[in-house]
Every structure is written in C-alpha cells, then in structure tokens.
Amino acid sequence: QVQLVESGGGLVQTGGSLRLSCAASGRTSLYYTMGWFRQAPGKEREFVSAISWGGSSTYYADSVKGRFTISRDNAKNTVYLQMNSLKPEDTAVYYCAAATNRATFQSGSWGQGTQVTVSS
User: Fold this and answer.
1) Partners of residue 25 on adjacent β-strands
2) How confident is the model at residue 12 (pLDDT cuts 50, 70, 90)?
3) Beta-ladder partners of 78
4) Is the pLDDT of residue 78 over 90?
5) Please, are residues 53 and 40 in contact by the beta-carbon 8 Å criterion?
6) What integer pLDDT is reported at residue 102 of this predicted model?
7) Which of 7, 26, 46, 49 has its CA 20 to 30 A from that of 93?
8) Mean pLDDT confidence for 92-111
9) How far apart are CA 22 and CA 107, in angstroms?
10) Which long-range contacts (CB under 8 A, 24 or more apart) does 29-32 make?
C-alpha cells in the first residue's frame, strides 16, 4: 500500500491560485498513476485530473481544463496540482489517489484530503 498526504489547500479569492501537493510514502513505485479528485458539500466525489506514471500523459475534467495543471516529481514521490483562475465552484475537499491505472482508482490508495475554499 501507498500512503498519501495532501497539503496546500486554503482560502483564496476568485481568480486566485493554489498549488496542492501529494506526498507518497510506503510502497511507492514509479508505476502508479496518480490522480486528484474533489468532493463539494452535498455532491458526489468527482474526477479532476490524472497523470501517468512517467508523466507523459495527463487527463483533466472539462471543468478545470486550461486552469489546472497536474505534474509529478518521482524523485520526491510527489504529485502536484497547480490551480489557477479559481472559481467559487472549485470549492471542495481535494483528494489525492494512486492506482495502477485510471480505471482502478476506486480500489487504490487515497489521502485524507485538503480543503480548498474559493470566496466570491
């Protein structure tokens, strides 16, 4: 199993930026697809972004495309989510996840989440 710890959340105004980090420990491996998900109050958890083990492939939800950028530093066992032009609808708890591929996130490893609040 891989342990994941998110950081970098906080309160920001509309149009602002935040960078989330997810540090992995335990049985880390280069062969993990990493992803970010979020859950807003009263809503189901939704996919935000994912990155392949080598970093060559990235995936984004339509709602964040062009505003968010996912990246990873395998030497540091860390994945990042740079969030720009934030909107109030981006307010949610953001979770980091690790899986062998994008289809298996549900059964993968998850962090505890970090709160992002965007004020209008």
Assistant:
1) 3
2) very high
3) 23, 73
4) yes
5) no
6) 87
7) 26
8) 93
9) 18
10) 29/2, 29/53, 30/54, 30/74, 31/100, 32/2, 32/98, 32/99, 32/100
Q: How many CA atoms lie within 13 A of 12 on its CB side?
A: 22
Give the chain's mean pLDDT: 95
Q: Are 55 and 72 within 8 A, CB to CB?
A: yes
* Site of tokens 């989330």: 20
5-to-64, 65, 66 alpha-carbon distances in Å: 22, 24, 25
| Span 14-57, pLDDT tens digits | 999 999 999 999 887 656 899 999 999 999 999 999 999 889 99
Give 1-5's long-range contacts (Cβ < 8 A, gap of 24+).
1/26, 1/27, 1/109, 2/26, 2/27, 2/28, 2/29, 2/32, 2/98, 2/109, 3/109, 4/96, 4/97, 4/98, 4/109, 4/110, 4/111, 5/111, 5/112
